Amino acid sequence: MYKLKPFILPNSKKGFLNMVCEFLRFPDKIIRTKYREINLFDIDGKNIDKKVVGEFGEEWLKFTNHDDDLVEKGGREYFDILSDDMVNKTTYVLDIGCGTGRWTKYLTSKAGFIEAVDPSQAIFAADELLGNIKNVRLSQASVETLPFADETFDFVMSIGVLHHIPDTRQALHDCVKKLKKGGFFFVYLYYNLEDRGPFYTVLFKISDLIRRIVSRLPGKLKHFVCDLLAIVFYMPFVWAGRFCKLMGFNNLAKRMPLHGYQNRSFFMIRNDTLDRFGTRLEQRFSKEQITEMMTSAGLTDIIISPGIPLYHAVGKKT
Ligand SMILES: C[S@@+](CC[C@H](N)C(=O)[O-])C[C@H]1O[C@@H](n2cnc3c(N)ncnc32)[C@H](O)[C@@H]1O
After folding, report:
1. Superfamily for 17-191+284-317?
2. Which residue has the higher pLDDT, 134 or 19?
3. Where are the chain's structural domains?
4. Which of 117, 143, 123 is nearest to 49 (CA)?
5. Can you tell me the distance from the alpha carbon of 23 to that of 94, in angstroms, rounded to the nearest whole number?
6. Residue 218 reports pLDDT greater than 60
7. What is the pLDDT of residue 19?
8. Exposure class string for 74-93: b at 16+ Cβ within 10 A, else e
9. pLDDT higher than 50, residue 8
10. Does 142 sit in the ligand 1 pocket, CB within 6 Å?
11. Ligand 1 atom closest to Cα of 100?
12. How far, in Å, is the centroid of ligand 1 from the Cα of 157?
């Protein structure tokens, strides 16, 4: 086992250092940044799409500027189904596919210690966003090459990641393996629009066709086209919804396509447009499929939030 240098945490409670585990193996490389050491592990495996990972690296190095307000708002939406027994100051957390580390950051003030992992260059964006925050360690690794022993963590999360992996079910099982018995797994997976009518279905089919084309464009052109799509595809619905709200037609605003973006900044909308149209591999799931995958991974007490983003869910390992 790779012996970790002790984390010296200013004003840390006694016992805090004991929470941080040793790596299963030596990192291939350790990069020292101005904030911390980042541990780089091999990301090769069968269940990873390296093109997708490379593109995420580019995306997250472009959209690094997630201000505190944005993180706070988004974090509250995602974690609406969490309770204090799931995450508190004694919780050892693993964030798989952390990207820029925006949701890692949200949880740093609520959890004990967080291991944040991503196979892409985004891990360097996370380093910048997390800055001087001490109760977090960053590693480059994939869900298949996690350098931690099974049953190590109290809380494992993977937000918007597993639907970009070739075998989502296997990846979900790999995440749950790292969880202690009695621990909680939190996941966000794209929903398959199961409760939507024909208008949405047609709209989705068109947007999916656009995604298949746009996601294969070369880097700069893809980013430009996605910015254009944010203006011509997202913003008209967002503006129409905001107008309905302004006129007091709140129910109508809620029924508008993309209603989740009505209170989001243009920065976030551009970021999500690139995420949505710039990614060549995405899969979508029904509530039933998510429940089945979580159950077969050994989770019970599954809660799927009725709120946006759809679907985010939590379950307990028995
Ligand atoms: C849409 S981003 C989500 C990032 C972050 N969780 C968030 O919500 O801001 C998906 C992330 O999954 C990561 N990813 C892709 N394949 C992965 C794999 N096999 N193992 C772990 N992470 C992976 C990508 O590098 C990317 O940062």
Report:
1. Vaccinia Virus protein VP39 (3.40.50.150)
2. 134
3. 17-191+284-317, 198-277
4. 143
5. 13
6. yes
7. 64
8. bbeebbeebeeebbeeebbb
9. no
10. yes
11. 9
12. 11
Question: Could you report the per-residue pLDDT of 112-165, keeping only the tens digit for each?
Answer: 999 999 999 999 999 999 999 999 999 999 999 999 999 999 999 999 999 999
Token pair for 222: 């893809």
CA distance 316 to 318: 6
Distance 99 CA to ligand 1 centre (A): 6
CA of 267 from ligand 1 middle (Å) equals 19
Picking from 275, 215, 264, the residue whose alpha carbon sits closest to that of residue 239 is 264
Single out the residue of 276, 176, 184 nearest to residue 222, CA to CA: 276
What are 236-293's pLDDT values in tens digits? Answer: 999 999 999 999 999 999 888 888 899 888 988 999 999 899 999 999 999 999 999 9
Distances (CA, A) of 56 to 43, 120, 125: 14, 7, 11
User: At residue 14, does pLDDT exceed 90?
Assistant: no
Ligand 1 lined by 165 (C-beta under 6 Å): yes
Q: How many C-beta atoms surround the C-beta of residue 314 within 10 A?
A: 22
Length of the chain: 318
Query: Which residue(s) pair with 312 in the sheet?
Result: 188
Q: How far apart (Å, rounded) are the C-alpha atoms in residues 158 and 116? A: 10
Give the nearest ligand 1 atom to 142 CA. Answer: 20
The string of pLDDT tens digits covering residues 54-110 is: 999 988 888 877 789 889 999 999 999 999 999 999 999 999 999 999 999 999 999
The structure tokens 């639907």 sit at 163
**Residue in the block written with tokens 């050994």:** 298
The reply to whether ligand 1 has any atom less than 6 angstroms from the CB of 112 is no
Ligand 1 centroid distance, CA of 60 (Å): 10
Backbone phi and psi for residue 59, each to the nearest 5 degrees, phi listed first: -60, -50
Distance CA 228, CA 252 (A): 26
**Which pair of structure tokens corresponds to residue 250?**
């709140």
